[in-house]
Amino acid sequence: MTDDIDIRVTGRAGRITFTRPQALNALSYDMCLAIEAVMRQWADDDEVALVVIDAMGDKAFCAGGDVAELYRTGITGDYSYARTFWRDEYRLNACIADYPKPVVSMMQGFTMGGGVGIGCHGSHRVVCETSQMAMPEAGIGLIPDVGGTYLLSRAPGRVGEYLGLTAARMGPGDAIFAGFADHYVPRDRWADLIELLEASGDTAPIAELAETAPDAALAAHLDEIDRLFAGDSLEAVRASLEAADGDFAATALNAVRRNSPLSMACTLEMLARLRSEQATIRQALELEYRFTWRSQPESDFLEGVRAQLIDKDRNPQWRNADGPLPDTAVRHMLAPLGEDTLTFEGEERLMKIGFIGLGNMGGPMAANLAKAGHEVTGFDMAPVEIAGVTMADSAAEAATGADVVITMLPNGQILRSVAAEIIPAMSKGATFVDCSTVDVDSARAVAEEAEAAGLLAVDAPVSGGTGGATAGTLTFMAGGSDQAFAVAKPLFDIMGQKAVHCGTAGAGQAAKICNNMILGVTMIATCEAFALADKLGLDRQKMFDVVSTSSGYSWTMNAYCPAPGVGPQSPADNDYKPGFASELMLKDLRLSQQAAESADADTPMGALAQQLYAQFVESEDGKGMDFSAMLPRFEKRHRG
Ligand code: NAD
């Protein structure tokens, strides 16, 4: 769970706001995941006409990636966190670049590194008088990544080489000149502009409010930049800077002397390749990933972060600082990665999923997730085998290291005890999705506990029965934050055909309880009507033909007919084996009455349905029978 970003829909705009101004809105892995998840969701959402990304505070839109965690894990020899972060961040950069709807970014103050990856690949990039952009990676031993090499390779003349090697800052005019921004709108007009974008869903107001940008200093120096940075090797560029007169060349030379030789040499090689190949952003990102994948063990990256950001001694001990780089160094850093190559196929992130409760519903749901390529680890109290699912020895083991943990358990009490076991085992930022049908209080309590532990939480009970679970056609009714829903939505899309975001924590269970109260009442009404029809001598098929096309029709009549041999196949045709067991219906009706009690709602039909199912399950022969077995029950009974 991250409080560092505010995601919402306002009017026609999908809105993403960085809310971490005290850290210059530095981009964390959680923020990347949240942005990617919601953008994929908005791509198919007709309500969202465009996306507007902005940031709180005056100092920065986003001053870069949050490299502290990359450093912390990297120095212990654990490179997997950084590689995963970069891989997913680059996929997000590509997603923004090729987004099917306009993406407007509003970039005040600093926009650097990771911030460029978010703000500078969209369709409408807005700057103002305070905007300062840079790709400063060479100063920490990295290369300009997040698609930075793509932008730099398309900048006029040798401006890309100049910016990539020196990490020089661009003002608003420079950013537009170099191809990092499109429009200059004075900051005091931004609130109006965003309001117009939200209200209209149209990008036309940007051009209407845009003004002429300040002159680009880069344009004034273009001839000099082209001359100084024309060399095809770092040595050649250095030599021409050393031989040149004037302040501009001297400042550039100082920067080049400060930065990592390996980073700068690789940057030059990458820009040469990308420019000559007229590459796409995906090719650029794939090339960047070759460097960053190797960067922790084999480049100046960890030393650069140490010197600039951790110890702050500003005295990095670069590799090859005293002599020319061996030819092989650049070739090695940019060599293809084989099976670790960055790919974009499908682009939906394959997740590590823990699945707890693999019964009639959970089993086929987990199997569908595994079939879609996700790595699913499951646990159930009973010994079960599910195709594609690796079984763990405990719920906590299944939850450890998972991106998402899904529970599908019998009731709220069991959910609470499983939650107490798995929440401490889950990684911070992971998402807890409970699909069981439980009481609203348990759903809210578990969500609260999860959020307090730094997790995202969604309650997402389902409708559609075991048939829907197997076919992947369930309906999910979800409660939780927009961010949590966005993470879970791609999984709902695999397991179901519809997912409705009903509101905050507990709203999914509230919707489920109301739906199932209707279902229980309707099933009883349908069954007693068939029993009455029998006694009136009406043929069951004729009864179905009339009611299923008249005002008495319902899901219980039309799709789940309780009379055997009539209507579509249903548990009635299988000796009333569940399907949906009567005791589960009784559980749901009790939940509805418990909720009605605490909300002071008058639900007489729901109360009567609960009473009838309780009698059926507890003192007749309903236990273990499908809930439509109410029909043979009514058949045997008489009035009074
Ligand atoms: P089920 O009894 O078949 O499955 C529940 C599973 O949870 C069982 O395999 C059980 O062994 C396991 N379990 C119990 N306690 C556990 C624990 N502490 N740790 C790990 N596993 C544990 O029930 P189901 O039909 O799959 O229903 C699951 C949930 O889905 C229920 O809340 C139900 O109300 C809801 N639901 C069911 C249907 C349906 O048609 N069956 C439809 C919609 C919703």
- List segments where confidence is low: pLDDT < 50 over at least 5 consecutive residues: none
How many strands, which pairing sense, and closed or not: the largest β-sheet? 9 strands, mixed
**Nearest-angstrom radius of gyration?**
30 Å
Q: Under CATH, the topology of the largest domain is which?
A: 2-enoyl-CoA Hydratase, Chain A, domain 1
Domain tally? 3
Number of helices: 29
* Fourth-level CATH superfamily of the largest domain: 2-enoyl-CoA Hydratase, Chain A, domain 1
- The helicity comes to 40-55%
For the record, the CATH architecture of the largest domain stands as Alpha-Beta Complex
Report the top-level CATH class of the largest domain. Answer: Alpha Beta
Structural class: alpha/beta
Strand content: 5-15%
Terminal CA distance reads 57 Å
Shape: elongated
Catalytic activity: 3-hydroxy-2-methylpropanoate + NAD(+) = 2-methyl-3-oxopropanoate + NADH + H(+); a (3S)-3-hydroxyacyl-CoA + NAD(+) = a 3-oxoacyl-CoA + NADH + H(+)
Organism: Pseudodonghicola xiamenensis
Keywords: Branched-chain amino acid catabolism, NAD, Oxidoreductase
Domain Enoyl-CoA hydratase/isomerase: 14-321
